[in-house]
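Request: Mind sharing a record?
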Amino acid sequence: MAQKVEPIDILVTLNQHYLKPVSVMLVSLFEHNPQQHFRIWLIHEEIPMADLQQLQALVNHYQQEFTAVKVDGEQWRQAPTEDRYPIEMYFRLLCGELLPQQLKRVLYLDPDILVLNSVVPLWQLDLGESTFAAATHTGMTNLVTDLNKLRLGTDHAYFNSGVMLIDLQRARQLVHFADIQDVIATKSEYLLLPDQDLLNYLYGREIKEIPEEIWNYDARKYAVYFTRSLGENDLHWIMSQTVFLHFCGQPKPWEARHDNRFTALYANYQQLTARLLARLS
């Protein structure tokens, strides 16, 4: 396969329970970006080697690069209210420290995402003076954003952390574990979505907003997007324009009780991935 000169660095941070979903996400990424060169970075604490090798085989099948970064989670366990804050949350926020210093930027993706179109425009986005690029999920009104501003005491939009373009050089100067610890220790009762709240509270002013309909489409809210766009953002528009279809909230699309207009689309990629993994095993 002909490779582009510049690779796109993709970051995922997860535990063993999300290996199947992240495999589906990666298959959709590769299938819809067939000429692109990707380097996949997985930061984890204790995923078994056999599972990592299966994911490695999947990435190799698409002639892409894969690196697992194993982190000693002991230092993170000193954080207060640990049971509410999974270890992987810190890996995502502090990825500048954990990834190789020569990496200049990375695109973080949640595992509960389908990639439907080219990621190149976001990868090439000029961040200007911002450290991150992310989308908001506003609904028909700004009520949720206004409530989050009140809850967290912020004066900016409330951003979803499931898709983030990160300037690693700026993040290494900005994001510090001690600051995160301090917020958890002093404002824990106000944090409902831990890593997302921390991102917004500490770094919200460092985030460049990107259109959610393209870069972080909430799969639960088809009716909202359709109505807000006066009928333009129908299924045909989504398949041709949306890049990241994000299955936010519960239930997840790999669960039997998930049933909306995007369930079958996810099931298609899920079956494709399962067949591929069976051949590679």
The chain has a mean pLDDT of 89. The longest strand covers residues 159-167. The radius of gyration is 18 Å.
